[in-house]
Design goal:
Length: about 500
C-alpha cells in the first residue's frame, strides 16, 4: 500500500473516531437539553398552579372586603376582572400540563366551572342586596373551592418534585456519559496519534533520514551509496532508483576519471616529449644564426628569425599547457588564511624588472585576508597584473589599482588598469585556452586568463571583465573570506586610502 493511502487511512480512522465521539456526545447533550427543557416546563407548571391558588385566594379576600362594604356597583366589576384573571391563569396551567404530558388534576379542570357558578350566584344575590347570602357563599362554597385548590397544589407539587428529581438524575447521568464519551474519544485519538507518529517515524522519517545522508554523501563526491530501505512504497522506489543512479554515476565517474588521467598523462608526456626536439630546433637555429649570419642572405636570415621566434613561442605554449594540466589534475588545495597585500607584494617583486622598464604604477586599497592556496593566488595576481602591463597603451605608463569589497560571504576583488581595453565581443572568450588578443609584437600564448579562471573556480569563486576599447579594463574575481570582521573598501579608481606598492 502506498504512503498516501496509508496516511489517508490513518487520518481517516482518527477523523472517524472523532466524528463518532462527537456525534454520540452531541446526542447526549441533546438529551440533556431536552431534560432541561422538561425541567423548565415542570417548574413553569408549578408556578402556574401556584398562580391559580393565589388567584382564588385573592378572589376570596377581595370579594369578602367588597361584601362588607355592601357596594353592588364596585362588586360586579371586580368580580368580572378577577374571574377573567383566574380563567387566563387556569388556561396557562392547563397548557403546561399538556406540554409536560402529565395528567390534568380534576380540581383544576373543574375549577373554572365551579368558580363561574359561584360568581353567577353571588352576582344574582348582589342584585337583590342579599349580602348575608353572599358572605355565606364566600365562607362556605368559595372556601371549600380554595381548600380543594390547595390540596391540588400540594398533590401537583409532590408529583413535580418527583419529576424534577428524575430529570435532574437524568441530566447528571447524561453529563457523565458525555464526559466518558469525550474522554474515550480523546484517549483513542491520542493513542492513534501516537501510533501514527511512530509509524511516520519508522516508515517515513527514518527512510528520509537515510536518503538525506546518502544525498550528502553523494554531494561530497562519494558515490558508493548503500541504502537499506525495504519498504515497498514510494520511498522504497525512490531509494532503489537513487541507489541505481549512484551506481551508474559511480561507473561513469570512474570511467571519466580514468579517461582524464589518461588524457593528462598523454598531455604531459606529449608536452614533455616535444621539449627535446624543440630544444634541438632552437639550439641549432641559434647556432646557424651565430656561425652563418654573414653567409646567409637577407631572406634566409628572415626565415631563421621566424624559426627562432616560433620555437620560443612553442616553448611558452608547452609551458602553459603543463601548468594548466597541473591545475586540473591537482588534488584540492589546502586552504589557509592569506594576507592579500602580502601576495601582491610578492607579485610586484617578481615583476620588478618589467615594472621599472615600463614605468608602471601599482596601488591598492586595504586588502583583506582570504582563504586559499598561497602559490595559486600569487600566480593569479601575477597573471592579471602582468597582462595589465603587457597590454598597455603606447606612450602611456600603465597604472594598476587593486581593491576589494565584501559580497555575499566572499571577497570581490577588482584589478583595474588604464590599458588598451577589450572589445565587448571578446569578454566571454578571453578566459578560454589559447584565446589571445593580437597586438603586434606582444608575447603570450593565451593561457594566462584560462589559468586564472581555473584558480578562481578552484577557490569557489568567479571571474569576469568589464572593459571597452581604449578605456582600460576591470577584472573582477571572488575569493572566500578568512574573517568576517575585516572592513571592506569598494572597488574604485583610487582613493586617499590607496597604497602604492610599485
Amino acid at each position: 500500500m502506498s504512503i498516501g493511502r496509508r496516511l489517508a487511512l490513518a487520518f481517516g480512522s482518527v477523523a472517524f473516531i472523532i466524528a463518532c465521539g462527537a456525534a454520540i456526545a452531541s446526542w447526549q447533550f441533546h438529551n440533556i437539553l431536552e431534560e432541561t427543557r422538561t425541567l423548565t416546563a415542570v417548574d413553569d407548571k408549578v408556578l402556574a398552579v401556584y398562580r391559580v391558588r393565589a388567584d382564588v385566594g385573592a378572589i376570596r379576600r377581595r370579594l369578602d372586603d367588597l361584601s362588607r362594604l355592601r357596594d353592588a356597583s364596585a362588586f360586579s366589576p371586580s368580580a368580572r376582572r378577577l374571574r377573567k384573571e383566574l380563567s387566563d391563569d387556569i388556561d396557562q396551567a392547563l397548557l403546561y400540563f399538556r406540554e409536560t404530558g402529565t395528567p390534568i388534576p380534576g380540581t383544576l379542570g373543574a375549577l373554572r366551572d365551579a368558580i363561574g357558578d359561584q360568581f353567577d350566584a353571588m352576582q344574582r344575590l348582589t342584585e337583590v342586596n342579599d349580602w348575608t347570602a353572599v358572605r355565606l357563599r364566600l365562607d362556605n362554597q368559595v372556601d371549600e373551592i380554595l381548600s380543594g385548590v390547595r390540596e391540588m397544589v400540594e398533590h401537583v407539587n409532590a408529583d413535580v418534585t418527583e419529576q424534577r428529581d428524575r430529570s435532574l438524575k437524568e441530566i447528571e447521568a447524561g453529563q457523565r456519559r458525555a464526559q466518558i464519551i469525550l474522554a474515550l474519544t480523546m484517549l483513542t485519538s491520542l493513542a492513534i496519534a501516537v501510533a501514527l507518529g511512530l509509524y511516520v517515524t519508522r516508515s517515513i522519517v527514518a527512510p528520509l533520514s537515510q536518503l538525506k545522508a546518502a544525498a550528502h554523501q553523494f554531494a561530497a563526491g562519494d558515490f558508493n551509496v548503500t541504502l537499506r530501505i525495504g519498504a515497498k512504497d514510494e520511498l522504497g522506489d525512490v531509494s532503489n532508483a537513487f541507489a541505481i543512479a549512484a551506481r551508474k554515476l559511480n561507473d561513469y565517474y570512474s570511467t571519466l576519471k580514468r579517461s582524464n588521467e589518461d588524457l593528462e598523462q598523454f598531455a604531459y608526456a606529449a608536452s614533455h616529449d616535444l621539449q627535446e626536439p624543440l630544444r634541438t630546433i632552437s639550439t641549432f637555429s641559434e647556432l646557424l644564426r651565430e656561425r652563418h649570419q654573414n653567409t646567409l642572405s637577407h631572406e634566409g636570415q628572415e626565415f631563421l628569425s621566424y624559426l627562432v621566434d616560433a620555437s620560443a613561442r612553442m616553448r611558452q605554449l608547452i609551458a602553459g599547457i603543463l601548468e594548466y594540466s597541473r591545475l586540473v589534475s591537482a588534488e584540492d588545495h589546502q586552504s589557509e588564511a592569506i594576507e592579500s597585500d602580502e601576495v601582491l607584494g610578492v607579485v610586484v617583486q617578481n615583476l620588478q624588472a618589467t615594472i621599472e622598464q615600463t614605468r608602471a604604477t601599482i596601488t591598492h586599497d586595504e586588502l583583506p585576508r582570504v582563504l586559499g592556496s598561497r602559490q595559486q593566488l600569487i600566480q593569479l595576481f601575477q597573471n592579471l597584473v602582468g597582462n595589465a602591463i603587457k597590454y598597455r597603451r603606447d606612450e602611456v605608463p600603465p597604472h594598476i589599482h587593486i581593491s576589494a569589497n565584501e559580497d555575499d560571504g566572499m571577497w570581490k576583488f577588482c584589478c583595474e588598469d588604464n590599458g588598451i581595453g577589450i572589445d565587448s565581443m571578446y569578454h566571454l572568450h578571453i578566459f578560454g585556452m589559447f584565446k589571445q588578443l593580437e597586438r603586434g609584437s606582444q608575447g603570450g600564448v593565451g593561457m594566462g586568463l584560462a589559468i586564472s579562471r581555473r584558480i578562481v573556480e578552484r577557490h569557489g569563486g568567479t571571474i569576469s571583465v568589464i572593459s571597452a576599447v581604449g578605456k582600460g579594463s576591470r577584472f573582477y574575481f571572488t575569493l572566500p573570506c578568512a574573517e568576517k570582521d575585516v572592513g571592506a573598501v569598494c572597488c574604485g579608481t583610487g582613493s586617499p586610502a590607496s597604497k602604492p606598492v610599485a
